[in-house]
Input
Amino acid sequence: MSRQTALIVILIFILGTAAWSQTVRIKDIATVEGVRANQLIGYGLVVGLEGSGDSQQTKFTTTTLANLLDSYGISVPADKLKVKNAASVMVTATLPPFARPGTTIDVAVSSMGDARTLQGGTLLQTPLRAANGEVYAVAQGQVSIGGFSAARGGSSVAKNHSTAGRIPGGALVEKETKTNIAAQDSINILLNSNDFTTASRAAQAINEKLNGDYCSAKDANSVIVSIPREYQGNVVGLIAEVELAELVTDASAKLIVNERTGTVIIGGAARISPCAVSHGSLVVEIATQSDVSQPNPMASGQTTTTQNTVMTVTEQTGHAVELSGGASIDELVRALNALKVTPRDLIAILQAIKEAGALQGQLEVI
Output
């Protein structure tokens, strides 16, 4: 990786309530237990591919086509069929909660064999099943791939991924899933991100919204809301009120790095303890000193102690960057970026700091 590779740094400041004081709604950070989507899958055929379908070596396509013709009373041996205009595909979809029979959902179509492209193809009627084996929807329609692929005389050109596509509204829901939240005496709110502080604040915000003590945090992920008497028989109204409750979320300091793309995502609360790191031609030194502020003998006031952190990054070429104040990951990354450190070197330095126990936060490599 070149030294000139640009370092992508996304800074997310989570400096306590002072810097992360924006309120959010419950509906933006949580869901109601039992209100969930279901995955559907099915095997089908796409036809009308103008010679870009599966080859004769794709035996399951010829067998499927022979079985399809046989269901219409046309008996043709599988080895006699030419399937270049057809392709075997897997069809997937997500059945949303409360979907009723007759509503439509989008489906994704993906080639299973060696078809060159699904451009211009039509998906034949395909039952979509859930994990329990029951059919909940049936898909059919024109496949849209959002690109193209063409070949002639040994040359080819393609744009986007042409062996997978979508059919907007391509499946009809035939059966609904059972979601009965009205018969419960309480509802369970599930946070999208586990955090004890956020769960406690959510319970407090819901109680304030409902003007009573109806809610409590069960753990870092769930908040239980007892249904008040005035909302008996109107659980939907209760959920609507709960979703509008506002709070200030909290999160632990986290540092996420991706060496493949050079992306570093930093939680501003992540700090560095005093340490020194030498990486190749780079030397990183971090030190903290305490300063005492004492008032005049005759003046009123209290003696206070402040922490001043000085961070120096040097390179054998003579470049140096000095930072004073609180040593944060943000400041370290900026200092290294000023020296045009590659993402790989930066990630290695951060990992070494974490192993030394000097990184006050979580390090996650993706």
The first strand starts at residue 8 and ends at 12. The two ends are 18 Å apart (CA to CA). The chain has three domains: 8-14+252-365, 24-35+182-247, 38-173.
